[in-house]
Amino acid sequence: MMDPQNIAGRDGIFASDALRRSHAVLGRTCFVAVLSVLGMDASEAQPVPWSTTDLDLIDRAANRIQQRGDSSGFASWNTKLDELVFKGQRRLNVVHIGGSHIQADIWSQEMRHRMQTVVPGVSAGRGLIFPFTVAKTNNPWWYKVESTGTWSSLRSVVRTDTSTIGLAGIMVGTTDTLSEMKVSFRTDLFPGHVFNRVKVLHRTDSSYAVHAFDPDSTVMIERTVNVMGGYTEFHFNRYMDTLRLRFQRTDTAQRRFTLYGILLEGDDPGIVYHAVGANGASTASYLRCQRFVPDLALLEPDLVIFSVGVNDAHDSEFSAARFKRNYVDLIARVRKAAPDAAILLTTNSDSYFKRRIPNKKGATVREVMLELSAEENVAVWDLYSVMGGLGSIAQWQRKGLAQKDRIHFNRQGYILLGDLMFEALMTNYAEHLKRTVVP
Predict the structure, then answer these.
(1) I need a surface site. Which of 273, 324, 371, 404 has the fewest CB within 10 A?
(2) Which sequence spans correspond to the domains of the chain?
(3) What is the Cα–Cα distance from 88 to 84, expressed in whole angstroms?
(4) Does domain 125-267 bear CATH number 3.40.50.300?
(5) Are 97 and 306 in contact (CB under 8 A)?
């Protein structure tokens, strides 16, 4: 799976009015469950806009978080969530890693919006972003990237290249002596994200300097270079909604600047939902990311979600044993970067080969992940079963939720995936509350 259509464009983001009018059905079910555990009357709550449509497509019984081994990791995530829900305190980081499903940032944006608004009165930052526009590939609609100069890119899916790549699975570079980049948020559909701290992840052994600037002279910016950490950090004296960066070569010792990602941070409590996705990425792709561990450690994740496996299952040389080994390695790398983080694997969405042949390897991926749950003590969200199993993507396409390639979803489909995953997480949290709060 290489670059899909740019499904993150503005027009028709929520093309179905009926989809948005039916928000209450799916998410409100799990929200009411949480409220009932907290002893609250659901009628007192403000409407929660969680979308759903055609529930006959969905195996509701399968829409849960499964834990076949030690569940203490996920219990720790729920305990941390308690501090946010009950006290309005704590800053939690979720890192969602995947391929083109995540690069488009519709599924993950739906999750981000739901998780960042589940507790009224708290806000959080945007987290890790990548300037995909500069790499000439589809950029999430929610933020706009403008740049000057000439840039080239490289993705971790290129097996023959050994260049250093970060957690994002893609990097951009320039040999221009001076170039600039501007990142701003589109607020048509969701609130923009503000920040007062920024880490620019980049190659630090080159003769380039990174500077942040702003046309407002009252904005004060403190700059620090962390050579060992691989980033330049900026502290602003106020919250900002637009980032301007300048990349300048300081001498002729080295002629290339390499950018791995931009981390937008703040100090407010809430949930930061980092989307890490690269078109065509597989488990092997992320194992080729040399900066995977140090970059992930910078994000200080409390929950890491892997939605990686569709591209593996579309490889003609797919091996269940190799796929499992790759995931064992990825899980080990997460635990090296963040020993206390909970880990959630999502089974593959159903897909077809060449639009005509159902991909039976999706069921194999599912079995491997359930084995990993028991052996590696990670949680699983069984998307494959939630969708309806083998051949179900054709049904989703007929219902206007998936694209003709029967691999990718359209906007409405990705929104529904986000709502379903959020429901599963919140139902799991409600079960936690029943065990720990209700006498």
Answers:
(1) 404
(2) 125-267
(3) 4
(4) no
(5) yes
